[in-house]
User: Fold these one by one.
Assistant:
Number 1:
Amino acid sequence: MPSVKIDKRLFSFVEGTTILELLQNNAIKIPALCQDRRISPSSVCRSCLVKINGDSHWQPSCSTLLSEGMVIETTSKEIEDYRKEILGMMAKNYPQAALKEFPEKEFHYWLNRYSIKGELSIRAKKVKDVSHPYIQVDASQCIKCERCIRICEELQGQFVWHMSKRGDQEQIVSDSNGLFGQSSCVSCGACADTCPTGAIEDKNRILYGIQEKTTRSVCAYCGVGCEINVEIKNEKIIGIHPVLESPVSKGHLCVKGRYAWNYNYVEDRIKHPMIRKNGEWEKVSWDEAFTFCSEKFKMISTEFGSDSIGIIGSARATNEENYLIQKFARAVIGTNNVENCARVCHQPTAKAMSMMLGTGAATNSYDDIEKAKTILVSGSNTTKSHPIVGARIKQAVLNGTNLIVIDPRKIELSKYAKYHLQLKAGTNIPLFNAMANVIVNEGLFDEKYIKNRVEGWEAFKKFISAWTPERAVKICQVPEQLIRDAARLFATASPSMCFHGLGLTEHTQGTESVMALVNLALITGNMGKPGSGINPLRGQNNVQGAAVMGCEPGSYTGLVSVTKERERFEKLWNTNLPDKKGLTLPEMIDTAALGHLKAMWIVGFDVYFTMPDASHTEKAFNNLDLLIVQDMFMTETAKRFANVFLPIASSFEKDGTFMNSERRIQRIRKVIPAPDNVKTDWEIVCALAEKMNKKELFNYTSAEEIWNEIRQAWKAVYGITYQRMENDGLQWPCPDENHLGTKILHEKNFPIGDKANLAEVDFVPTLEQTSGLYPFILVTGRELYHFNSGTMTYRTANKDINPSDFLHIHPEDAICIKIKEGNKAKILSKYGTAFLKVKIDDSVRKGECFATFNNSEVFINKITGSFRDNYVQTPEYKVTAVRIEKIK
């Protein structure tokens, strides 16, 4: 390994390392005020200059690469004098109050280190811009290091900040050229995170001051799994910052992960167990609540049988907690009626990929984004729903990667795409089949890969020959040439990597849509290698984990069959288990509506608000004899129907693990105490099991103890211990403690054998079609500032940035129905009615409209349809025929 001398000490280095990186890696501190490891060097501030090999022309250490035999001086008297002069110039007219208030700031540290005080101005005062809910801008503290400009461009890709004017009048301003709150900022906080002075500062830091301690954990929102540093003071959260070295998020966070944590402290958080008596909620002791629940369960089970009870796990609970929830259903109640919210989002993905490849999880890692030559994003508004992955895709494209976007709307990524295929909602299969047709007919397939790794090629060629682009155009309404160009790019500019979201899965042919996408990857050889694969973007922080832990009616932990693996789990748990597959969540709703399901226990999931055709769900819940809701807040489900409410700890108030979309299992840590009378999900499960005389099966004392049992149940994670997850986490499969985890699946073979199966997927139009009475198609989807049922984000300042759901209508459609921006509209379907304010938006197709689903006052699922996926019964949220009326 090559070496250099720094201040007469010998250091070895890796090729491609800068001088500054080597200094920082060895805890040698010099000022570098324009540099952040997340952005490229600019050498603007000149404070990091060093002398190399005695040369009188000093070089910036931030941008100078090391080479063998260099002799570097960092602290000679002339260098130190120069640095003091540079810092003194930066400090001219700088406010002394800021220096005293936040001495830990990088710039303030160096001013103190070099004893620079006399140059500071006590008169420096400018108007502070407090127009943004989370961030304050104070131009008097700006030293023009340009870090905010570069991190906004290079990490987020938003281009909010820029340099205005020249010379003495030079200043950094946002793209609003006025108030920062009116800019195009997406509130990721990267500029505040990198600012060395406090010119751009989190309001929480100003309000609460400096933290007492910092604890590493994982974000509580989407399935990306960004790692966070949680700042604590007086046993309360005062701020969240990104983990710079995180392999998932690369030192970045979105607005939800960084700022939307105050839901932990809102007044309407439920902090006592409650039972509804005579129609009113009454606070009770935990013992009374557990006694009530256990007696009800016993009574219902005795009278109607174990299968008259259903239990729903939570995508926001830990792996350990979901493991116990499904174990409770099977070992205590005696039913396989156990589910989680994956049923209403990515269950079609899991089914499709399991059938074709043998594993229903992402094949690759986020780090493959930077290795791909082409990225295909289908049915995912990634920068809104999974912002950090979206930002990484944007940066990859800005650095030369090709991007294909397949979506009914012009999403943000469409602006970066080489091709945007703006298809008619619900027609993914004809489009994918037509792309496959082009690839086959033009000989663009990977012949060697198909021969060695793919089954059913000859039959597939015959089948796909009928799916010409000319045929597909009539269905999906994408120009023929665009289909051909996208297919050619995907096949030839490889490796090609696929990301998809609920725009593929939430259809009657959701499972088959994913199958058709997998076909494209297989015939082009884009599987089992870096920069390729099929990668579903999971919606909630642990929805992948909830399913894999066994909160599924047909699967135990590790997604193994409840019929084939029953004896093994009976031996592991030392108890008898039910011998038939249970009910899915939609089946539970149907069965309850018929009066046959008598009780449900719902953990961390607002089922009534979430399920489509709310009137059907309402009928089902009204028929139940017992409904237990376990949550932090009074959800719509609890408010309307629950008999018992059990208050739970947030992810900041407990230990455990989450599993992100790239199969990475990561530690979450208890960073603050839970409210006095609140319990974790796993503590509640164990206590209720004890009440039902099954303590011996649930005699756990810690989350780690539960995890170690999971390792015994599922050999693919046996090598993942709490100790090995201290930093970064590990990706399964990881079969032993010497294994480094698996970044890419299917490199040599598939769990189902040497070859994967191609699928012949024909298109069957949904029965949900427009008519004279319902002339528009409504598509629902996610939004940047809010999350799922809004129980967390609507209790933060995110509601000030985005106050509600809106109905997005194409300008020409708005003219036809005589409706304007800001008007309130009545939206009617065969299933119900909702009311939303209108946004005129040419990003949607004519004849289609779009709405998010986060606001309980809007309750968009009162109007979504009743049709479901053919394989796994996922609701068809993406296609509902509606009528739009202006409210006068």
Number 2:
Amino acid sequence: MADEFDSMYETFRALLDVFPPAESVKRLEQLGISPDIVQRIRDRHEQQTVWIRNLEEPHVVVLGNRDTWYTGPQTKDKCWPAVVDHLRRDGWSRDPAIARLDESSTRVVSLLNHPKERSFTTRGLVVGHVQSGKTTNFTSVMAKAADRGYKLFIVLAGIHNGLRRQTQARLVEQLVEPNPSMWSQLTGLDKDFTPQENPASYFGKSNKTRVLCVVKKNATVLRKLARWLEKASDYLEDCPALIIDDEADQATVATKSINPLILSIMNTLPRSAYVGYTASPFANLLIDPSAEDLYPRDFIVSLPKPESHFGTEVLFGRYALDGDDPDWVDDGYDMIRSVPEGEVACVRPLSRAKVEGFEPVITDTLRRAVEYFWLVTAARRVRGTGNPHNTMLIHTSVNTAVHNSFKKPLELMCDDTASALNSEELRSRLRELWEQETARVSAEEFGERKVEFEELSAYLPSVIDHCRIVMDNSSSEDRLDYENGPVVAIAVGGNTLSRGLTLEGLSVSYFVRAVSAYDTLLQMGRWFGFRNGYADLPRIWMTDELAEWFRHLATVETEMRRDIDVYMTEDVTPLSFAVRLRTHPALRVTAAAKMRDAVTAASAYGGQRLQTHYFHTNADWLIKNIDAARTLVAAAQSISSKIDERTQEGRYVFHDVPHDMVTGFLTSYQFHESSSNTSKLIVDYINKRVETADSLRRWNVAIVGTPQGKPDNDFTFALGVTVGRTIRSRLDVAGPADIKTLMSPRDAAVDLDGYKTTWVEDDYREQRQVQQPDTGLLVLYPIDKTSAPAPRRAAAQAPLRKVKGRVALDAEEHVIGVALVFPEPTAGDSSVESYISADLSKVPLEDEDYGFLDNEDV
């Protein structure tokens, strides 16, 4: 069946090469293909088109939609061609990758001011992905700006010496060394900024060289730079400057020392462009736009996710957003392994009082993670491809004393393992571990060949012998050094490893660090990035709670980027819109000081579909929800003006139910605590809309099950209201039972007349607006407590997405799922407190110019 559908889809794609989409659809119908199949073909084509567009196109918001002065590289350029040559030598042999980099960096440069303008101050933000090549992008931007006449380049490279040195080295290698006569340097590999004599030698009109300065975001360093630039002010009139703020959300926003110093440096430069780069822009998007600060008032660019990049969604999956086809939402690769909560106290002190004298225990999961790292390293030696380095990350605490306490236990484990490698017991355990892990993630799926245990075992003695235990933190002298030959290292650390710095060849992570904010959590994920040659092998050990937080964060990222995309198409600017950031019940978006100017976003449930997908499986919790559902159905049955019975479909619809019955049910029904929507938020929204817009006073309550007739499968809601139970297996992931998707698109039209199988999302919305403009829909699903999964569909049906395995739900009682469909918002629609954004209310609006009314010559 899958092969037949794929064949029809290929026919459609062939038609698209000749005819427009509408004509191609007509020709499919003329071939006798059923409307349902035609719709499936259209859906797949649309999803693939969106997926490809998101990969290839940077999304931009531009101030005033101004015309750009920069249209791309020219033949006379020197810096950008040198960058391209370096990338090709470094393995960027694929022209499409360089073409995408060229396109996205050109877009950023096009948003800067022309360097010959008399004066300007630009503030922009570039949103990338963690470990996705942001440095390469801003290096390309600097190269193109240098080719066009920008003269001073200040790079704010994080807060640690390691990242500053790494950034300096890369910029020297890619910008300075290919064109040494074009550049002067104010900083060096081992030297942060120190004041230079004679500023005229750098900025005078007779000096045509570009000036590079790579500094830490350190108050002492920035103060020296600011004072020196003030002394050089006589020479800066003709010095267009580009300030690149790497990790722009760190230290830059809402700090008493660093933030004013950056602004001070900008104030000394008559022509300056500030561009922040970050993968976690939450703090930057919440800066007060009305203040003289670094809110990205001029532009926001969202870089496309590079091909083969391991990002949040790729590893952890995400939740479906309103309008998504749930079957196309990424589930993430099966690479996350659970650390039981009971083991956390063995690897991390649970309070400050327990830090002193803490001694970690090599728990079962930590031992398994370390042994798997050695196996991966050996397997990579068999393959002999990709990055020559091999690194494992252990991150359990921010405290340096805790990091140091791991050294002896890990070294002892190395010694014990090396001496026991010939024992049958150890070899049997390692073989079993390797077979289990390689069975869960197929090497062939990533274009790799599976390495057999017998092949890698010969390399294990050398791997363990060369393995270093590195304590990389602010108090240690030991550091990861990738410049002196291939490295095999288990790195134990905290903040020095949690942002910006690349862990080369990272394949295994053990992460149980307690965090409280989105940006902190995201930046600690050093496992993001590229894994060429070993993309099938990375694994992450973490608690179930942390895994759920990362999944939520992937959803936040997707929604944030959609906001940037949507507002771009609506001809607005960063000063007339604010990107919404979805909140979480247990996590802050960013540090409290960085959110002090944020406001609840003007976001409401109008036009949205909400559905439960998290559930507890214990009987007490489930029985309360069953009782709440039965109470609602009995009440609706007694008061409904019209009952639509479709027993042959397992469906009932009770029309015209008062809103207080619905809010009463929602108050009794228990949403899982991991849900971003709570009964209070939803009930408050309904009540506000009733009061302010005279809408949502009436509801339709539907039941969606399967046809009754099998006594062992029937579920009774009320007298005469019985349907068969539905099957919703759970994802094979740690944590709460997650069924991922409850409602099908068809269910959202269960109370509408004239339903057609060819309806798409716009049709549902249009028909609801026509038929039920002020009426809400609540749908109840009786879910079978066992819900064994159906056989997995062929991968050919969904070539662009990953499908996590499914397991039986195995709840102690049957489960009640709930979905709500809200009509489109009205003028009186009220906001809910599940999003925050920057406060644009204090931004002064430009008055329209009516002066021409007094001008007779107009």
Number 3:
Amino acid sequence: MRYVSGMRGSAMAVVVASVALAVAGCQPGAGGTDTGHGDVTPSGVADSAASSPTPGDPGPDSSVSNSSTPTASAPASSAPAPGGPAATCSAGSLKATARQAAVRPAGTGTGAAVVEFTNVSAQTCVLKGHPTVAGAANGSPELNVPLTVKPTGAATSVKVAPGGKAWVKLTFVQVQGEGDGYCVSGSAPVLYPTMVVGLPGSGAHQVALDDGQFAECDDTLTVTAVSAVRPA
């Protein structure tokens, strides 16, 4: 009887040990791998890998920050700045008058005349250059006789404010003698009731002397450039 009881105790011990081994075989080991398959991933590793960015990966929100970065706008087309270069005076912005010059060649003709240009517009404008000159009758500019001009002095820009003035001086070949006079060259003196004075880019202006008419010789004269200083 003792023998039988000992056998039964041993058999129960073997069964219990077998069950314990079977249960242990169903649990992951300390390394997290199944010795029977070798492919089991440790619990939680896959989840943490999916939720954590890899080194150097800017993450899913980086594209948003890039797209929200403001970009520089294209520069606007340039416009003339206030106080910039003034435009050339138009013909309509000028009033021209003429008087006999105080300083002129000796003789009995006109000798020399100063032509004054007044800016009658509301805008500052610019005059520059030497004039052209033609002799003319009263109110008959189509009968102009172009005169040969000899420019003197350098041409510079003269800015003329509203109401401001600029000048040119015309010096003729002087008539000599009394009465109708004579020309040193031997040609006959010529008398013009008016002169047509043209300025580069600023039109042609017909002027009469405030005292007398234009008497000259040889249809040749010397002209100054436009000046901001009134000549004598």
Number 4:
Amino acid sequence: MDIAAIAARNGITMHRAQNSPLPELGTVTGDWTDKPLAIIGTGPSLKGFDFSRFDIAGVRVLAVKEAIWDLPFAEEVFCLHRPWLLDREAELGALDKRKVFAVEPEVGRCPVIPNSLYLLRTRHAGYSDKPTEIQSGGNSGFGATNYAYLKRGTSGRRWRWALFGFDYTDQLGEHYCADRYTWYRPGQNARYWRSWGDNFNDCKAQLSRAGIDVMNASPISTVSAFPKCSIDEGIRWLTAACG
């Protein structure tokens, strides 16, 4: 049945929602393996933490979404969640930091923010190995690790990451900065947390082949793919790899 044709015969105009145009998409380049990497999310295990302690000489910092406002020394910020881009468009436009966004065509506007790298967001198991694409894993924390994976370069150096605030649980609340999540409805992602944590299991072989060692410094985390430790231990683990 051709619904559009029937509608036209009856004088009805149908309006089909169109995907929004995307900014120009780019490619991940560069090699970050010269320094250990702290990837910092917004999980509740970081509530009350002194973020200046992440400002460590010789450690590179990648912020995930809202964590950027507590990490003025971060090298870049990553996000794949369109509502956050819209909510923080003005602040991100004024932010003198490199922004990395993974986007896919969606109904509604996609902000074009200066000093930003836009990549295509995809959905499949494991990490994307294409420097033009990010596998979402359902959330910006996972996407940030796929972005970091694409920054491994060709040096062959072993590389050390520590994840902070990658909790995917509400045992201590939902975000350390819950008051700033103005677009977020409390509890809206609770049904996904376990599966989001499990998504990291599909990446272990890729990380191993790339010579990337990962420590999850989020002790209450549902991410079981990597050894867990305290925040303090995670900081010491990164610091030990400096220089």
